[in-house]
Amino acid sequence: MTARSPRAMRRVRTVGALRRAIAAFRARGESVAFVPTMGAIHAGHLSLVRRARATSDRVVASIFVNPLQFGPREDFARYPRPVRRDRAQFAAAGVDLLWEPRVADVYPAGDRTRVRVAGLTDVLEGAVRPGHFEGVTTVVMRLLNAVRPDDLWLGQKDAQQAIVIERMCADLLVAVRVRRGATVREPDGLALSSRNAYLAPAERAQAVALSQGLASARTRLAAGERSARRLVGVIRRELAGYPLVHEDYVAVADAATLEPVRSVRGRVLVAVAARVGPARLIDNFEWRPR
Fold it and tell me: pTM of this prediction?
């Protein structure tokens, strides 16, 4: 990396302004990392910014609540948008360039093109949110084409999303390194999520069921359990103790293909999704037998 020159965070809206700003970085020989977000910034997002700062000369972040990845009965209209707070957090974290596109900047008039990754998007989140991943891959491909970063930073909490985007970039020969940052958690284990803001106090207290169920499964794996059916049962028993938590799925899947496994023989993703009050929460961990 070259020496980072001090500068205030710059904000841009249009693709043209974004590209001109990044061209100036490139003209100085600087590497670029990209952290795409939908806003409602929390410590998990900021951990990705810190990782990006440590590995690249310049950090570009985006805030775009992508309408294409929300279903007709999902929370697009009420998704939290604390814009001023988000900008302040990104500036304090050391983001060099913040892109805040309008819908028309990402989906121009006459837009018809969509990106779909077959197979990986039909299971887990894809099975309960039809069309969701087509919205994710389409928007990420467009953001990448606009920014053209060296590194793309994603969070492990959205593990299936990261796997899908890694596959998309490999298949479409996108010249970017897709990197993952670890899930950031509250002291009681709850994975940080912008949707945690929807939780009432009683719901927030019970939302820890997801991380506690996963922790119980991890303990059983460490003790030698290899049956996926029994691991799923361990998590479900934990969830059953929390009446405000309603399971969408519990799964043990191959960490590369997302196909369900019967026995843990290689690297797996142990994942859970549940509805808690108005919020739909997900959590997971990866495990590789030693």
Answer: 0.94
